[in-house]
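BUG: 3D viewer hangs when loading the predicted structure for this chain

Environment: internal workstation, default settings.
Expected: structure renders.
Actual: progress bar stalls at 90%.

Input used:
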Amino acid sequence: MLGKRNYFNNRKLDALLPKGLLNGQGMGTLARFRYGLFSFGWCGCEIIATYNLLQMLGRPEKLSRIAREIYRYGHVLLGFFGTNVYVLSYYLKRHGIPARTVYRKRAFFRDPGTCGVVSFWTKPKRVLTSSVHTVAYRTQEGGGVTVYNRFNNRDCAYHFASIEDAFGKYPFIVANICTEKKA
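Structure tokens produced before the viewer hung:
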């Protein structure tokens, strides 16, 4: 019931989203999207990362539809803790996205593919005040990486010299890596 109500709210907001990749989940129209009992500003990073990845791969999907589908099997405590990050691989597989799931940081750094989504703890040590964050990224020729929706309150992408610079100091959880070029 809650998922359906949120879907009808979010569907109206799809048309108000900026074109292209999304950043700043706690700002503007994105902050008005709902997931469970909360707004995307609180718990929408996995949904936004999935949306951004699909955009990068040339397989766009409405943000409201992604949220509705993932909520059915992925929400944690009605969105209080966002989405179970391990279900993103299920969503990608279900939609025919060729992604490789990696559970070790070293393997991720060795071969990050061309783009993907990565989940990590937001503090250098896993303490009680740390939370999980999921972002989409795209590797650049020459070793750089661009990260999308890196911060809740910033509406821009962030560029790093390497994948290690972008994610090295954060405890790694899981990544879904794509090597497919944009369609």
